[in-house]
């Protein structure tokens, strides 16, 4: 496809919907306390009952409520403070817990009047973000969500519906969710609406779910009962699941599953009503006059000595599945969520029926109206940069078409020499014969030679290792044999061939090679060795080259003019946190910085800090390390620093700038008192819900997404701050997510076009592939380095603890020899 004229202004649709009419009068905010304390969903029921019963006292006002402590009205209520008693009827609950109360007390106190004028001033760049503005935006979010949250399962700003659900397998299904959030933009408020799916348990008979968990076609296939292994699998999956019994259709009691019995219903005994022992099968037959169809299956235990036959239980709908999906379920979820742009846009518009702005009583009451049409915004397409390869290449310069290119007729800019290496296969010779390994190695060597590397050792020794054996010992032997084969030359690389499973093995390989031996490793899955593809070998070659100190490509000087003018260091920083729910785990902070003037090679500095701490606590020392490395590598002191910071929420911007910008400046001045390079501090975010949809075919790529280089810096951006959305990569599957950039501090005086163009151009020199990527390389490298840090769980660490042990900064690094190269790639 012919690329349109670059920098041509175009129009794109986006999933923002304009608030065409805003409240003009003050909004009144009230604090609400509901006692006893119950979950938000029950709070909403209590509040709905209160609102319905007290229309006269409320003066005809219909308040909106967030399910917690905030309530808003369009006019003041007749009272400043009041308390009310609300009685709910037939509140069901699991018998394993205390039954929730049916009588509640609501206390309402006026908190403040929200003056909308502050928001109007802010939107028109005539005032700052005041507390009034924040409260007005919060009120709008609650106004648009009040009705929909009462109808659908709700998680913060997400509302899920079973309409169009799809089975993921084993009794789990994917539900479509709709996200909505009020956003201040230039001169107007917008509602951002997007799709978000999550997993729910399938409602219906529990016996059906048990059959699906075990991969049976129907409950009739369970006639042989369950083995201990099968019972444990089912119990693990359904533990804490909420169910109702169907003993009496007119009375549906609710329970929570504790476990399964180890015996079948026919053999599970308990004390009957008369004190005599009786089995569950006989008891239910006598009491409910129903014969069990599956007496050979275990019973559900809902509390001590309270048993229910599985066939007497129904799974209560609308229960989220909180466990990790297995591989098949994950693949099915990806199929469900990966929608091409046109389908996603249509489904977002269909979601307006769920969100129901047109007939929303709350919106009308507050004087709000929201457009049912997606916003059309101004965009531009940035020029594609030119990438430089070695001068001896038949094609030493390439200008990508559609965001990708290949290595055909190209040689890397600085090819490394590989003279001492070995191959370590973690599979036996029956599964992966030596001849297959040799064919793969031959193809890999040929590809590396063709792309400009020098492989002087063309017949590396091949060894075998047990994937569940002593990995450290196996790696050490492979390292020694590589040195012996090369007549004492220090080994540079161990090529590890892995089974097509086992992340633990990969982690141990990296831990040992990086921190114990100090040798680069390249892992490949065995499936790729059997019929080696040229493109796969080329991608492996790119990784090996930079791990050995080579450089793959760089941008021509005119396309990184800002870097070419004066020595400039690019830095990318990010923090990887422990898994959700792990309150004792550690967070991993990584900082990657360029070490040459062309930003084609990077070094990393890694620290471990207290879990869930977003601010990098030891940033000053990390920055100092990389500034020294830059100077030692190219003999120049950076005069400019561009600092890209990954994934920090807007609520933390002020604290982030105060802490981390101060640390950067302190690091510079600790090297020399008068060393003050100019700094630009940019925050990058990918976790947002903004999407773009091309309006004309000529502005779309083959996947239907907007073209790489599409940038939006008006209409839906901040009313006056320096920010933009950049779509730098070509779409592969689904709808591409642009990257959001916000400049918090800028001594280098970038204008929008210069920073956008520089960031876009940098996305073309990510060392691992021949594609433009969605993030600037220093951020990608920081993510890789932080991920690698997770694998070092057994490393020796120096711990620095502040008084009282409240702050921890653990320093650990790869072996010094590896720190000179991009070992983390």
Description:
The chain is of the alpha+beta class and 825 residues long. 28% of the residues lie in helices and 28% in strands. It has 19 helices and 42 strands. The strands form nine sheets. Strands 37-1-22-38-39-40-36-35-32-33-34-42-41 form a 13-stranded mixed beta sheet, sandwiched between helices. A hairpin with a 5-residue loop joins β16 and β17 (277-279). The longest helix is centred in the first third of the chain and has 21 residues, at 131-151. The two termini are 33 Å apart.
Category from helices, strands and their pairing: alpha+beta
How can the largest sheet be summarized? 13 strands, mixed
For the biggest β-sheet, the strand order reads: 37-1-22-38-39-40-36-35-32-33-34-42-41
pLDDT averaged residue by residue: 93
Number of strands: 42
Q: Could you name the ranges where pLDDT drops below 50 across 5 or more consecutive residues?
A: 1-5, 93-97, 794-811
Task: Kindly report how far apart the N and C termini lie.
Answer: 33 Å
Provide the gyration radius in Å: 31 Å
Q: What portion of residues belong to β-strands? A: 25-35%
How many helix segments? 19
Report helical residue fraction.
25-40%
Overall morphology: globular
What distinguishing features does this structure have?
13-stranded mixed β-sheet, six-stranded antiparallel β-sheet, 28% helix, 42 strands, 19 helices
Compact description:
It holds the Pfam family ArgoMid. The protein is an alpha+beta fold and 825 residues long.
Task: Detail the topology: elements first, then pairings.
Elements: E1 9-14, E2 16-21, E3 27-35, H1 40-53, E4 64-65, E5 70-73, E6 81-87, E7 103-114, H2 116-123, H3 131-151, E8 154-155, E9 158-169, E10 172-185, E11 188-201, E12 204-205, H4 206-213, H5 228-238, E13 242-245, E14 254-256, E15 259-264, E16 269-271, E17 277-279, H6 280-288, E18 298-303, E19 306-309, E20 313-315, H7 327-337, H8 341-350, H9 352-355, H10 361-365, E21 369-370, E22 375-381, E23 387-388, E24 397-398, E25 417-418, E26 421-425, H11 434-450, E27 454-455, E28 462-464, H12 471-485, E29 493-498, H13 503-517, E30 520-525, H14 534-547, E31 554-555, H15 561-565, E32 568-576, E33 586-594, E34 602-610, H16 619-634, E35 640-646, H17 653-671, E36 678-685, E37 692-694, E38 710-712, E39 723-727, E40 739-746, H18 752-762, H19 777-790, E41 798-801, E42 808-811
Parallel strand pairs: 25-27, 26-28, 26-29, 29-30, 32-35, 35-36
Antiparallel strand pairs: 1-22, 1-37, 2-11, 2-21, 3-5, 3-7, 4-5, 6-7, 8-9, 9-10, 10-11, 12-20, 13-14, 13-20, 15-18, 16-17, 18-19, 22-38, 23-24, 23-31, 32-33, 33-34, 34-42, 36-40, 38-39, 39-40, 41-42
